[in-house]
Write a structure and sequence with these properties.
Helix content is 84%, strand content 0%. It is mainly alpha-helical and 399 residues long. The radius of gyration is 20 Å and the shape is globular.
């Protein structure tokens, strides 16, 4: 049953993320056509992140108590509705509201999927199993922009959003009929959300993991939502399909490397891999504003994808371990996803402010600097936490 559940889950996430990826190159163009500037575009993205961030820990904790399946079903249904609503938006405020509604749906999908995989992963293979989930996510969100660009170029803006709706409803049907309502419990029983948050705040290793997840998500807005606007500043004409290919280079490289890097994570020092991945991301991001052709951008985004391919299984494995041994899978993954949303929100605000006040290039420079500094500090926190855990275990053994 567990193998069938894993396959169903991965297929569902692929379909759902394919639908989301379809609208990536289209959303900034639609927002700009409705009068959105840099800050307004950031707010459209931030509305999604704020609602998702606030809801994720609650959903994650409740899923530990009530079960997970129907939260995912509800989230996919909301995604389908969002795809139908966005083409009818007539103002930036409409987009902000609809994206907030989408954030609620996302809060019922991503942390639940992470919790499912965390439960299914055998001890010591967390990196590998998180790699499987990341493949589904990145293949979906990587292929999506290519199709989205093609839809925009051939059928118009609205077609991409309707495609998202169709794919989301298809994933909805798949979960309803194939996903079990409950899985055998593994690990500790979840406590209430507030006590769990207090305990997380007291563990340096957990704080470091969450801080690293927060920092490495700051890159999402400038690398995704602002890329079409950056490339359209070139003298040569850029199509939606070309933008989609650049985004796909990053996400597909990331997906291809998930299994080998996931195995690497299970056998090597995670902190070292985290730092190497972060520096790779930071360097490539700083060079993005200097790209002047589609080929150059594809290369830079592929390097960015290599860095992320190291980081995602490292942090996913860390979060799975913490959920199994200390907080409950859903609760930990809900807060872990909150950290992701916080990073996206920060990136949206930082990129929007930088673009409007210093130019779009500075959105990439400042993001690269923030990601590197915060993640390296987070890696140090994880190291201190692991040393404290080892010292505590030694003392327990002596007793």
């Amino acid at each position: 049953m567990e193998r069938s559940t894993l396959i169903t889950l991965l297929l569902t996430i692929f379909i759902a993320l394919l639908g989301i990826g379809v609208i990536i190159p289209v959303m900034p163009v639609l927002a700009e056509s409705l009068g959105a500037g840099g800050v307004a575009l950031g707010m459209i993205i931030a509305a999604f992140s704020i609602v998702r961030g606030l809801a994720q820990p609650v959903v994650g904790n409740l899923s530990d108590i009530l079960g997970r399946k129907w939260f995912m079903v509800a989230g996919l249904f909301i995604y389908g509705l969002v795809g139908l609503l966005i083409p009818h938006a007539t103002s930036v405020n409409d987009l902000i509201i609809i994206r907030g509604f989408q954030g609620l749906g996302s809060a019922m999908i991503v942390p639940i999927a992470l919790a499912y995989v965390s439960i299914l992963a055998p001890a010591g293979q967390e990196g590998r199993y998180m790699g499987y989930l990341n493949i589904a996510m990145f293949c979906g969100i990587g292929c999506g922009p290519v199709f989205g660009g093609l839809f925009m170029d051939t059928l118009g803006l609205a077609s991409a959003f309707y495609a998202m709706a169709i794919l989301s409803f298809a994933a909805f049907v798949l979960v309803v009929f194939n996903m079990p309502a409950y899985l055998p419990r593994k690990g500790v029983e979840a406590a209430g959300l507030l006590p769990s948050l207090v305990r997380m705040a007291r563990r340096r290793r957990t704080v470091g993991i969450l801080l690293a997840r927060y920092a490495t998500m700051i890159v999402m807005v400038p690398t995704m939502a602002f890329l079409p606007l950056l490339m359209m500043q070139w003298e040569s004409h850029v199509t939606g399909t070309q933008v989609g290919l650049v985004i796909a280079a990053r996400t597909l490289v990331n997906a291809v490397l998930q299994v080998p890097f996931g195995k690497l994570v299970d056998t090597c020092n995670k902190i070292t891999l985290l730092v190497i991945g972060t520096l790779s991301m930071g360097v490539s991001l700083a060079f993005v504003p200097h790209g002047s052709s589609v080929i150059e951008m594809i290369i830079l985004y592929a390097i960015l994808g290599i860095g992320e391919a190291l980081i995602w299984p490292v942090l996913g494995a860390y979060a799975s371990e913490e959920g199994r041994t200390h907080f409950g899978h859903g609760t930990m993954m809900g807060v872990y996803s909150l950290a992701m949303s916080g990073g996206v929100f920060t990136g949206a605000m930082l990129a929007g402010y930088s673009t409007d006040n210093m130019g779009m290039s500075w959105a990439y420079y400042l993001t690269a600097l923030a990601v590197c500094l915060i993640t390296i500090f987070a890696a140090y926190m994880i190291y201190l936490g692991e040393q404290a855990d080892k010292a505590g275990n030694v003392q327990s053994d002596r007793r």
